[in-house]
Amino acid sequence: MSEIVFAIPGEIDLPTGGYGYDRRLLQEWRGNGVAARHLPLPGSFPNPTPKDLDETGRLLLSQPSDHVLLIDGLAYGAFPESIAADLAGRVVALVHHPLGFETGLETEHARRLIARETAALRHASAIIVTSPATKRLLVSGFGVSAGRIAVAEPGVDRAPRAAGGRPDEPLQLLAVGSLVPRKGYDILVESLRPLQDVAWRLTIIGSADRAPATTLALKAQIASSGLQDRITLAGAVGEAELAQAYDKADIFVMPSLFEGYGMVLTEAMARGLPILCTTGGAAAETVPDAAAIKVAPGDAGALTRALSELLAESTGRKRLADASWAAAETLPRWQDTATIVAETCRKVFA
């Protein structure tokens, strides 16, 4: 193998966990002398047009035969089997989470995505996933043998411990993630309605343009609940502003219905924040039980009860925060992640 060609659809600078993972791999490889380059693919994935599929096939098949093709699952999982078969023997597929498990899909659309990804994965020489939970899912639901799958959990950067909000201010709740159905923000807003007699403020940081209908519905729900003065939809922000938001937070909340890993959870742990999250997908395992209150995804009542407990009990918040801060020391670093991915790619041509 002379080079890793990392094929990624769309704009690599988009503020999502998956794109953040891809960016950090490329950054770590540059810093450590690993021969790798980014190959942009059309941005219509995971619902590519016929023209974009033709262009994708041309781009990938034109790469030198001694280069490993590392293909982000947002594209690879949507490949027709004919393209995947043409590339067989030189592909490593990176699966953040299966495409058919995105919330809000019509049943038939989800079924087609699962069938297409199952077929494509048969032709990958190796598969990289970001959590043990996703590995188990591919084995049980997609017919992939465990021996073909490597787990490369996202790394986390060291960060200063969060200072929290001022004592004379309402407790600051923070959620981070794009406004898409899978993130469950409608459930979070519903869970906060019964808690209007408690002093809190919620900031949701995440891109508002990935699912415009979801964003409009969320804004309408906030207004109809009378919470427009207490919930801020901050949109996508830069790294400095995001770090400032983590520093000012008192509680981190992640109401997602499904996660392939949940990078924002480890970012919250790196700041020593008490966490309230769901058990959707890999999120159940990403945070140790001692560092978080965990509830079933989609259960607004359970979220209300957990939030009520956290908002009322400073001792409980501190216990979770201390466990979160301690657990962050055991998390992988990005260099570890990049090494696993690079070694997996090398083995394809070994």
In a nutshell, what does this entry contain?
With 350 residues, the chain is α/β, with parallel strands linked by helices.
Sketch the topology as an H/E string, one letter per element.
EHEHEHHEHEHEEHEHEHEHEHEHHH
Number of helices: 14
How is the largest sheet built, in terms of strand order? 2-1-3-4-5-6
Rounded to the nearest angstrom, the distance between the terminal CA atoms is 8 Å
Strand content: 15-25%
Spatial extent as radius of gyration = 21 Å
In the residues, how many domains can be counted?
2
| Fraction of residues in H or I helices | 40-55%
Low-confidence segments: none
- CATH superfamily descriptor of the largest domain: Glycogen Phosphorylase B
Fill in the CATH topology of the largest domain: Rossmann fold
pLDDT averaged over residues: 96
Verbal overview:
This protein is of the alpha/beta class and 350 residues long. It has 2 domains: 3-155 and 332-348, Glycogen Phosphorylase B (Rossmann fold, 3-Layer(aba) Sandwich), CATH 3.40.50.2000; 171-328, Glycogen Phosphorylase B (Rossmann fold, 3-Layer(aba) Sandwich). The chain is built from 14 helices and 12 strands. Helix 10 links the parallel strand 10 (251-254) and strand 11 (275-278). The N and C termini lie close together (8 Å). The mean pLDDT is 96.
Topology:
Layout: E1 3-9, H1 17-31, E2 36-41, H2 50-61, E3 67-72, H3 73-76, H4 81-86, E4 91-95, H5 107-121, E5 126-129, H6 132-141, E6 149-151, E7 171-176, H7 185-192, E8 200-205, H8 212-224, E9 231-235, H9 239-248, E10 251-254, H10 263-270, E11 275-278, H11 283-286, E12 292-295, H12 300-312, H13 314-328, H14 334-348
